[in-house]
Amino acid sequence: MPGYAVLGEPWWIALVWILVAGHLTNMVNTLYLHRSATHGGVVFHPVVEHAMRFWCWLTTGIVTKEWVAIHRKHHAYADREGDPHSPTLEGLANIAFGGLFFYRKAAQDETLLEKYGKGTPDDWVERNVYTRRRGLGIRIMLVLNLYLFGLIPGLIVWTCMVFWMPLTGNIINGLGHALGYRTFGTRDDSHNLYPWGIWILGEELHNNHHADPRSAKFKAHWWEFDIGWFYIRILSVLRLANVLYARTATPREFAAKFYRDSADRMNRRLDRALSRIQRTREAGLRRIERAREEQSLKRLDRAAARARARLDRVRPGKFARVARAKAEAGAELDRAREAARTRILRAAEA
Ligand SMILES: [Zn+2]
Ligand SMILES: [Zn+2]
Question: What percent of the chain has pLDDT over 70?
Fold first, then answer.
């Protein structure tokens, strides 16, 4: 048994734990609650599924039936009257900062839960533990964190863990219906938050998901990376997941089949992108040419400067030598002149 506050020092252990736990929570959110329990695109091995249900109870207190029902209703009414959490109807700030309030309100609607919550787990553990004692898991997590990290760090770690899921949800339900790009012309306002939203494990590809909700694979373009789908592939190789449906059509084919308007728009966008690439390429080539010319001019300038410097180094020495020779020659001349004068004077006296 580890001792009290054994993980309290150094501080970064707590940070790593928050990030790892948050990653696991995001994984449970996208793989189990969303892609499997709500839309049925994939089913997991009972052991994997239960591990995810257990983690969900421990860190979020979310009841599968409630989450699934609210999310299915969101798809049925996306961004129209009846959507439990639409930034188009409620305002982006309200969903991005107060999404939990809208979730709680919808979760109290028994009719909604009965109508949209069908097919969710209803075994003994679900009824007697995960639903009846929904708050027990996060309390156990609180005790565990306080014990492992000490009082203050433990409280901080636990707060981060508990608020992780509402924050993720608010980002997807708020920003995922307001910011980013759209690949498919769905009737709602869903957007893809790629690439900065990558830490939410594929949930950032929210427009792709609304276009084809049952698909266990959210990525549409080859350049989009869907971490959740990556994990599903690994689990299915290990025979721990069974993919029931994953979109295989290219975005262009899929849009042409189900979103004709958006297919035309996508074609136009692709054409525009191609001509933009062409223009960028030509401008780049021109820049390279200019740079080359400038470089050769600079090389010439440098050679001239080097030659000048050499000349400057040589010049003073040469001048000094010439001046010395001149002075010596002058002195020699003076001496010769003097001797000649003396000789002439002597000859005259004689
Ligand atoms: Zn949505
Ligand atoms: Zn969905």
Answer: 99
